[in-house]
Amino acid sequence: MYFKSFFDEQLAHMSYLIGCQRTGEAIVIDPARNIQPYLNVAKKEGLNISAATETHIHADYLSGARELALHHGAKLYVSDEGDKDWKYEYVHQYEHEMLTEGSVFNIGNVYFEVIHTPGHTPESISFLLTDKGGGANEPMGIFTGDFLFVGDVGRPDLLEKAAGIKDTSESGARQMFESLRKVEKLSDFLQVWPAHGAGSACGKSLGAVPMSTLGYEKKFNWAFQIKEEGQFVEELLAGQPEPPKYFAQMKKLNKVGPELLRREETPKVSLAEAGNAAVADTRPAKDFAKGHAEGAINIQYNKTFTNWAGWLLSYDQDIVLIADPEQLADVKTSLQSIGLDQVTGYVDPKELGASLEQYQNVDASKAKELMEDDNYFVIDVRNQSEWDSGHIPGAHHMMLGNLTDKLDEIPKDKKIIAHCQSGARSAIGTSLLLKNGFKDVLNLDGGFSAWEEEGLPVKKD
User: Fold this and answer.
1) Which of 122, 162, 298, 344 could lock onto 82 through a cystine, CB 3.0 to 4.6 A?
2) Start and end of every Rhodanese domain (predicted)?
């Protein structure tokens, strides 16, 4: 058997290529939309990707299953669990097999047994892998998708918070409790291969270790320790991070079938040609602060780029990028991973010109001094859990992803100091404020961490 994992650090997404070396067949589990890495490895290893499968209808990235089915003839193995609202609507166009509890399928001499593990979503399934080609008659591991992570379990509130399906959070949490009871009966030696690691918004405390064993998780994962259902439900629902706005779009597109990728060249344009497009400046925050195009928002191209692009860019508006030409292809791939395909052009940062807008950073001590003046309005763009653990007295909480929804709450006649934990998210927030007409904005350098290090006042509600 051949086994390889793939990790997208921007989405904290794990996917897997499993092959039978005797027959030359391979399957991709929870494929990302960019399927090229799987094709490259399969070619190198002499494998043909004959199948693709998913543990559930994903909400945080676009699936590459349709790309594999159309362009490479992969057979699709997908869940038939859950109610009628959560069925794959596009798979009938391709060779496919619908899976339920107890289903078994194989790729050469590698066998997969399906376990229905709802909780994160109603249709969620897990796969027990048995390498019969290697002489095994028991499974060696389990692909758990977003059901079981290293150190955590999948959040059950996304259908309600992101997809708008009412009264599903608590029922999902109760399903999660039952799924854990089912899986804890399995052998301790099973390796656990999840679909996400630390940084994903599909749970609240995912570990950074890419894999685990079921025995280890039974012993140390908090979710296995709580044996009373009501207590488990309460703990699971408490403190979940805000789900990115784009999650609802992903859930819909993965259900009806993601658009097939268009491989088009991105033309170089001028700012004057951007028209009504959203202008996303992907340079580091320090460069943006020194000079940027008026109306641009600053989403630095780093490991948080895809998340904030999904929060802040609209699927209904064209996008013009300000990006290093050598980085352009990677930026586009990142946007395409969540379905933001409408990039109509790019601007070379070297050609921005001289008439640029700027903003200033301010250190914690200076910020404290300025806040003593009633003319300053402090905005904390951190997550709710960060705010709850301690915040600057007098600050106003407006989480970055929802900042533009709260512009009416910001006084037009005051100067603004924006901050987050480190200064990175508030740099994005500063660019949003500037774009929306708040021109007197300072960004707290080092954020709340620098404030605490200076020993300045902290309040807990």
Assistant:
1) 122
2) 273-299, 372-460
- The confidence score (pLDDT) of residue 242 equals 86
Q: Known catalytic residue: 420?
A: yes
Question: Which pLDDT score is estimated for 179?
Answer: 98
Q: Is the pLDDT of residue 262 over 90?
A: no
Query: Could you tell me how many helices (H) and strands (E) the chain has, helices first?
Result: 15, 23
Q: What pLDDT does 331 receive?
A: 98
86 Cβ neighbours under 8 A, 6+ residues apart: 57, 121, 122, 123, 255
Pairing mode of beta strands 148-149, 141-145: unpaired
Q: Topology of domain 360-453, per CATH?
A: Oxidized Rhodanese; domain 1 (3.40.250)
Write the class of the CATH domain 2-254: alpha beta
| Predicted local confidence at residue 68, as pLDDT | 98
Phi, psi of 415 (to 5 degrees): -85, 150
Which ranges of 109-191 does DSSP label H, i.e. alpha helix? 158-161, 169-183
pLDDT in tens, 397-449: 999 999 999 999 999 999 999 999 999 999 999 999 999 999 999 999 999 99
Cβ atoms of 446 and 423 closer than 8 Å: yes
pLDDT of 112 > 80? The answer is yes
Catalytic residue among 62, 206, 420, 444: 420
The two three-digit tokens of residue 24, written as one number: 């030359």
With CA atoms as reference, report the closest residue to 68 among 101, 44, 90: 90
Q: Is the Cα dihedral 422, 442, 308, 263 positive or negative?
A: negative
Whether 2-254 and 271-351 share one fold: the answer is: no
Answer yes or no: pTM beyond 0.85: yes
